[in-house]
Amino acid sequence: MRLISGKEDLKKIRRSIEHGTDEQREIVRTILKQVRKFGDQALYELTEKFDHVLLSKLKVSEKEIEQAYEQLDHKLIEIIKEAAENIRFYHEQQKRQSWFVTKEDGTILGQKITPLDAVGVYVPGGTAAYPSSVLMGVIPAKVAGVERIVLTSPPQEDGSLPAGVLVAANESGVKEIYKVGGAQAIGALAYGTETIGRVDKIVGPGNIFVALAKREVFGIVGIDMLAGPSEIVVLADESANPAYIASDLLSQAEHDARSSAVLVTTSNKIAEETIKELHKQLASLPRKEIAEASIRGYGAAYVANDMDEALDIVNELAPEHLEVMTEAPFELLSKIRHAGAIFLGENSSEPVGDYFAGTNHVLPTNGTARFSNPLNVDDFIKKSSIVSYSKNAMESNAKKIAAFARMEGLDAHAIAVEARLGEKK
Fold first, then answer.
1. Annotated binding site for Zn(2+): which residue ranges?
2. What amino acid positions are annotated as catalytic residues?
3. pLDDT, tens digit, for every residue of 204-253?
4. H helix runs in 52-197, sequence order
5. Is the residue at 364 inside a domain?
6. Name one GO biological process term (predicted).
7. CATH number, domain at 217?
8. Same domain, 217 and 243
């Protein structure tokens, strides 16, 4: 991890949105064409080609779900249930209601909230299991009132899905679970196949091929975001604990060699001690090689002259995760404008949000927190505008509306409202 102290140095660690290579984009387009043309047959063949698994069926059976409960430790099942309840509680607070207002002239205006009909939740897998991604994708959709939720995830070598993933899906109320991953899963969700019905929106993180596939099908279906490798910024003053900072930076660095872990501090001492502590902790980390590559390529300790400069840097980075380890973290909250998730105080370690607090861990990356949100209930609803004009309102406003329309050269618009007045022009 390098020490930096100027904005020019930030350019060396900032990542751009991943667009993939020409070769990767072409591979994804070819996969999507195959799925669109050949349906289930393409899913079986592509799963054998990329996952090296010969499936006999795509859909997870009730028996497989029962076996998952038998395989998973009872204590872990209870933890999944409690985490699910925490996530449900948090997202319940985000629910919107339809609303209507009436004006004095009798006009009724409003907004109708309607859940999406069908949503696809992609859960990464293959060599790893992510029950937390199941909970984060499914529960907000359930809270929003989505009737049909489809979950897809790449199979393990034996053709099964991890027990934790199946338990989390069942506890979340998912009825359709399919053993298919990669760009082919995105294609199936977007276009539909003989077995997998198409959905209206696809959410959930994945590798570069999943991200590129989501980009390709956007417009046919909605998507949540184009997420890149994980990132964390820790904002600290002289009161922070370097051991805590180091461990939290590494919690994201271990995700991916392209993950970003940055300390922004007003204290040279904290920066130097954190770097020492970080390398000390790295030595015994099971995923040392990945974390080391992340720290080497996208890790830094930025020493600011004062807290105002530190906050400017934080807002410029617009990180996916921001931890505030200062003496009075809540006092800084109003000055933080851009961050996917904000963790206040030394006990609010980022993994708390990943698994258990209830906030969503599907977050904007690569600086897109400047204009994007965490996955939330609003991602699973539509808003329709409601207009009911009274006769009085029409008589009062028709000429104004007609004048506006003619200003834009749209005479038929003008005639449509003037017809209500019995006028012709």
1. 252, 255, 354, 413
2. 320-321
3. 999 899 999 999 999 999 999 988 889 999 999 999 999 999 999 999 99
4. 62-71, 74-92, 131-144, 163-172, 182-191
5. no
6. L-histidine biosynthetic process
7. 3.40.50.1980
8. no
Same domain, 69 and 113: yes
Binding site: which residues?
122, 184, 207, 230, 252, 255, 321, 354, 408, 413
Locate 98 and state its tokens: 């339809």
Look at residues 162, 191, 223 and tell me which one is the last residue of a structural domain. 223
Q: What is the residue whose two structure tokens read 């502590």?
A: 277
The pLDDT of 67-78, averaged and rounded, is 97
100 shares a domain with 56: yes
Query: Residues forming the annotated binding site for substrate?
Result: 230, 252, 255, 321, 354, 408, 413
Helix (H, G, I), strand (E, B) or coil at 218: strand
The Cα 277–Cα 349 span in angstroms is 17
For residue 168, being part of any structural domain is answered with yes
Query: Does the residue 70 lie in any domain?
Result: yes
Q: Tell me, yes or no, whether 385 lies in a domain.
A: no
Tokens encoding 294? 């992340």
Statement: residue 163 has pLDDT above 90: yes
Six-digit token string for 95: 């629910």
Residue found by looking up tokens 């205006």 in the block: 109
- Give the pLDDT confidence of 223-235 residue by residue, as tens digits: 999 888 899 999 9
Q: Into how many domains does the chain fold?
A: 3
- 248, 323 in Cβ contact below 8 A? yes
Residue 425 has pLDDT above 50, yes or no: no
Q: Is the pTM of this model over 0.70?
A: yes
Q: Are residues 290 and 261 in the same domain?
A: yes
**Is there a single domain that holds both residue 182 and residue 214?**
yes
CA–CA distances in Å: residue 51 to residues 122, 153, 339? 16, 11, 35
Q: Residue 407: which domain range?
A: 390-421
